[in-house]
Amino acid sequence: MKKEFISIIALFCLFGCQKPDIPAPLSESTDFKKAEAFLHQHKIDSAFSYFDRVATGSKDSLEAAMAYNYMASIQSDAGDYYGAQESLTTSLTYLDEQKKEHRYCLASDYNELGMTSSKLENFDSAVDYFDLAIKFSDEEAYRLIFLNNKANAFRSKGDYKQALRFYQQVLGQTKREGKEYARLLNNMASTKWLQNPSYNAGPELFKALQIRQIAKDLRGQNSSYTHLADYYSKSKPDSGLYFANKMYLIARQLNLPDAKLDALKKLIRLSPAEKAKGYFIQYEQLNDSLQTARNAAKNQFALIRYHTEKSKADNLKLQKENSEKRYELIQERIRFYGMLGLFLLILFLAVRWYKIRKKRTEQEKQEAILENQRKASKKVHDTLANDLYRIMKTVQYGSEQDPDWLMDNLDDVYQRARDLSYDIVDDNENFELKLSVLIKSFATDTTRVILVGNSHELWLKVPAAVKTEIKYIIQELMVNMRKHSQATDVVIRFEKQSNRCLISYIDDGVGMQKSTVFNNGLVNTGNRIKAIDGELTFVTNTGKGLEINITFPLA
């Protein structure tokens, strides 16, 4: 049994961010061990697939959390930072802060969140996450790593005074030798120079380089050459060019695309015009290739997760089909009354949550909102509750038992319930969570609903009014899917494209016939899209299914 599992990102993040090794779960499943083996063989797709299988199927919460941690590291390494954050937040849901054996994984998750936030230049959030990593770390060596990462975040945001303060704390607990000391010396010297351009950082930078050369630390040497090239680029351009060339040679030797791009940028800036032109061509080719590879990796990760969930759902479906038929009628009745009860419960909880939420605002708004809630409650009672009661009593005691009569009356109540929902004022705080709950509420035993890219960062640039329209647009699509599509798989993807947002709806249902007549719901959907300056596109497929693309501008 392994005592430790190897972290995926062993190299530095930005200016030396690190992820420590974290102890493995007490018992690893076969799939977990296979995933680790594929990872060590650099078979990333296979490793990600097996980690996803563990994450979605393991009964051991710690093992599932660690699988998500691994997946996040793979996604981050491929440049899919938002996907990595989604995996990390999912990992946290499996962990209990009160359990000592979970603290290592908690520390690792928060450290990873800090690293991805730094890569997305959200340095304030990164500092908060590194503080949480330090809080849950029981090992002094790990705390020093997290503290160093925190200092890097302050340095990246330009707060050099705070960065030096935390570097000094780490230095006070670090031996004056080896890779750790060289990294601290290198970081502190370059930070002092950034704080004071007249500071003579050369001796310390060369000392850090010498330690790394003796230790044959190629990654560390690459970092030293980076800082030396920056340091000398203005005062001694020839020396800056020399160190940029050394940096480029090591980046090629290590095959680090980001490091090669950084070196090429320095070579373009410091080289003579003729050579700079050649370096620029290399930079463009490498950058295009890297972006293409990363975009392909993001899509591949989403596809792997989709197929894993689909395979799991298919197995459950086969098990269900093999169940005895005498239970099917009972299950259908339970499902019907369960959904009815769930609807009423959700309605009650939503109204109550709405009241509690609004009590935290100013008194004037509170009174106005409470008045709206009272009116909404009255409409719900007058419009729905009495009619539902009448239908129930008619079914129980009346002579009218025609199924068509029952369906017509229930459909009438349903339509008025939808009309009533449009009158309720929407609350857009935590919009991505509420949108996720809305979309996944349409999933059933026969219809899988998969959500991709619904991140908090995506909705930060979307005005509240537009969020409300988007909610109702997606709700209308999902209602029509439930009523007409007969789909078993539905995928909704959110993606930022330049200054616009793309929402892709895909299902494998019966599709849309040419003779289809748009009802009021779809007409209203079209009007809502126009109201937010958006565009609606139906993609024609040769086989089954329906694909709809919606785009709208971001703020």
Helix/strand layout:
Elements: E1 4-5, E2 22-23, H1 30-40, H2 44-57, H3 61-77, H4 81-93, H5 103-119, H6 123-136, H7 140-156, H8 160-171, H9 178-195, H10 202-214, H11 218-235, H12 237-254, H13 257-270, H14 273-321, H15 328-358, H16 363-397, H17 403-422, H18 431-440, E3 448-452, H19 456-459, H20 464-485, E4 489-497, E5 500-507, H21 520-531, E6 535-539, E7 546-553
Parallel strand pairs: 3-4
Antiparallel strand pairs: 1-2, 4-5, 5-7, 6-7
Question: What overall geometry do the principal axes of the alpha carbons give?
Answer: elongated
Helix content estimate: 55-70%
Query: Kindly, what is the distance between the CA atoms of the first and last residues, rounded to a whole number of angstroms?
Result: 52 Å
Mean pLDDT comes to 80
Instruction: Note the run of SSEs as H and E.
Output: EEHHHHHHHHHHHHHHHHHHEHHEEHEE
Query: Which ranges are low-confidence, i.e. pLDDT below 50, for 5 or more consecutive residues?
Result: 1-16
Which CATH top level class of the largest domain fits? Mainly Alpha
Describe the structure.
- Helix 15 packs antiparallel against helix 16 (363-397).
- The longest helix is centred in the middle third of the chain and has 49 residues, at 273-321.
- It is elongated and about 90 Å long.
- The chain has a five-stranded mixed sheet, with helices on both faces. A two-stranded antiparallel sheet has the order 1-2.
- The chain has four domains: 1-172, Tetratricopeptide repeat domain (Serine Threonine Protein Phosphatase 5, Tetratricopeptide repeat), CATH 1.25.40.10; 214-307, Serine Threonine Protein Phosphatase 5, Tetratricopeptide repeat; 354-425; 430-555, Heat Shock Protein 90 (2-Layer Sandwich).
- A hairpin with a 6-residue loop joins strand 6 and strand 7.
- The chain has 555 residues and is of the alpha+beta class.
- 68% of the residues lie in helices and 7% in strands.
- It has helices spanning 30-40, 44-57, 61-77, 81-93, 103-119, 123-136, 140-156, 160-171, 178-195, 202-214, 218-235, 237-254, 257-270, 273-321, 328-358, 363-397, 403-422, 431-440, 456-459, 464-485, 520-531; strands at 4-5, 22-23, 448-452, 489-497, 500-507, 535-539, 546-553.
